[in-house]
Amino acid sequence: MRIWDKNEPWAGKFTVSVFLTVAVVAIISILVAGVGIYAKSGSACGTERWDVKTLSDVAPGVMVPKFTTVDALRAMPVPGKIDLHTPRFAEERQVYTVRGNVKGAKLEADRDFHVVIADTVSGKTMIVEFSDPACVANTTWRPQIDAARKAFVGFFGTPVATKFSTLSGSAQFTGVLFFDKIHGQRGVAPNGVELHPVLHVMP
Predict the structure, then answer these.
(1) Is there a single domain that holds both residue 2 and residue 83?
(2) Which helix (DSSP H) or strand (DSSP E) does residue 198 occupy?
(3) Cis peptide leading into 197, omega within 30 of 0?
(4) Residues 55, 17: one domain?
(5) Contact between residue 179 and residue 192 where contact means Cβ atoms under 8 Å apart
(6) For the chain, how long is the longest CA-to-CA vector?
(7) Among 175, 50, 160, which Cα is nearest to 113's?
């Protein structure tokens, strides 16, 4: 039986080849593991008007809820031009409570629960959003946002990122008025109005 002689001319090339193969496999394994961890942990928080969406710009105790309907919110005029970092409009300092039929939900890339609700009479839709408390810098509002999100999961289950899940039933949502830029969102109102974030939800 012939034993491999490391001094033979081809031995060095063989050793380098094996080393490179092992290194490449190791790097690929690390990258795959990283992608898996990233997928489990969720994507990054959002950027567009993010301080407005998460109430990071609002002092506590300035908003008292008003009862309204989905149709009434859909009819509101857009208060101004909406850009990436447009500050909060005066209209967006108001909290509203609406009852709507829940049509479906999806976990968005910015980690919000995107929920479509419909007016109980006309059936026309708008969006309400449940922020991820981990993305909320303002500790004053974080407990309410966290409790609302957990309540939604308790009532309707956890939305998934892979598809828009159809849901049924109705609920009462209390949240801060928000005007989003229309970019083809599922269930979006014609004026882009939302309740974002939702601060309370109940059947």
Answers:
(1) no
(2) strand 193-202
(3) yes
(4) no
(5) yes
(6) 90
(7) 160
Amino acid (1-letter code) at residue 8: E
Please give the Cα distance from 2 to 7 (Å, whole number). 14
Give CA angle at 135 (130, 138), nearest 5°: 95
106 and 64 within one domain: yes
Find all residues with CB under 8 Å of 121, minimum gap 6, and list them.
69, 71
Q: Strand ranges (DSSP E) for the chain?
A: 66-67, 95-107, 113-119, 125-130, 165-166, 170-179, 193-202
Compute the distance between CA of residue 71 and CA of residue 80 in angstroms, rounded to an integer. Answer: 20
pLDDT value for 12:
52
Between CA 117 and CA 199 the distance in angstroms is: 16
Strands 66-67 and 95-107: parallel
Give per-10-residue mean pLDDT for the chain (203 aa): 48 45 40 36 82 86 85 98 94 96 97 98 98 94 96 98 97 97 96 97 96
